[in-house]
Design a protein that fits this description.
The chain has 223 residues and is of the alpha/beta class. The chain has seven helices and 13 strands. It has a seven-stranded mixed β-sheet. Strand 5, helix 4 and strand 6 form a beta-alpha-beta unit. Helix 5 packs parallel to helix 6. The radius of gyration is 16 Å and the shape is globular.
């Protein structure tokens, strides 16, 4: 089944769309869900309208870690989807319930049995990443990769049983070059976004041009 990742917000702007420092991706495929929710609900509302996608009738939400540029728009998502299940790292469950979600903490492994979704579990008890089975292979989405994008990807691969990812998409948090080299060994495509930094993007473009995928606000990645 075809899977699309619609980038609702990234640090890099696109004409006609709003953007700010943040990260949010709508995933449409076997499941419809939102991975992280930026900082500002107005950005999500405007961009989803311009991009022609609905933020209603989601199957669930997923939060990578408890930083405001990733959870700031989730209260708006809860207003559109009352009672929606939100998978979060440990902590702040009362706040999630006040927003109007059903909170859920997923350990390392399958998100739900047989659903083709795999969770890294909270690496360093802080941040989690998600792997999606697609027709192209396993696609890993990360938030900020504070523990290391290579470590988060490795955790998803271990959880899923995949030997290699097809793509890794998201914020890499100004990674060291050796982390990018390790990532290149683990993934066919590399799509640095959000907090990855220009140096990391240039390094991947120069060292692994066949793997580099550009990402910005409004990008639609198909797998």
């Amino acid at each position: 089944m075809r899977t699309e990742l619609v980038v609702l917000d990234d640090n890099v702007p696109s004409r006609g769309l709003l953007n700010e420092w943040g990260w949010s991706v709508l995933v449409e495929g076997r499941h419809r869900f939102i991975f992280d929710a930026d900082t500002n609900p107005l950005v999500l509302a405007h961009n989803s309208k311009i991009l022609g996608v609905s933020l209603r009738n989601l199957d669930f939400g997923f939060l990578s870690h408890w930083h405001h540029d990733h959870y700031g728009g989730f209260q708006y998502i809860a207003e559109l989807n009352p009672g929606l299940k939100l998978y979060v790292p440990p902590g702040n469950l009362a706040m999630v319930m006040r927003w109007g979600f059903e909170p859920a903490v997923a350990g390392k492994g399958a998100l739900r049995e047989g659903d083709g979704l795999w969770v890294s579990g909270p690496v360093d008890d802080f941040e989690q990443a998600l792997g999606i089975e697609t027709s192209s292979g396993l696609v890993v989405i990360v938030g900020c990769s504070h523990p290391g994008v290579d470590r988060l990807t490795e955790a998803v691969l271990e959880a899923s049983g995949y030997g290699k990812a097809h793509a890794v998409v998201g914020g890499f948090h100004y990674p060291k070059l050796r982390a990018l080299d390790r990532l290149a060994e683990m993934s066919e495509l590399i799509a640095p976004a959000h907090c990855s930094g220009d140096d990391a993007k240039r390094y991947v473009m120069r060292r692994y041009p066949e793997k580099f995928v550009e990402v910005r606000t409004g990008s639609v990645l198909e797998f």
